[in-house]
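Handout, section B. The chain below has 116 residues.
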Amino acid sequence: MLARIRLKVPDRPGSLGRVASAIGAASGDIAGVDVLDNEAGQALDDVVVQVRDTSHLTRVLDGLAAVPGVEVVGVHHPAPPVPGHADLQLVAQVLARPDRSLQTLVDGAPVALGVD
């Protein structure tokens, strides 16, 4: 399942790398990063992470809390749909290959809808 984690991160080289390392150390898989804002030496980022369940999400959040200067300011679980009209892209893929439509829907629906 996907979780969108909103973070305040120091706006300096290596900060996002430390965030990625903490997520990886907790066996989380980063599915996307959006930089929302940066001001006064702080960046506000949304990181979409693939986790197995809520206890796995808790381990990822604990790892992030241990990174100096990083603050978890919000968690949306499950993550909302991926921006960029992923749902329409999925429909286009289904229409392009009708012989694989069911498999395409099964594979693509979680990402397009932000659910398991």
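Note. Residues 82-116 form one domain. Compare this with the example in section A.
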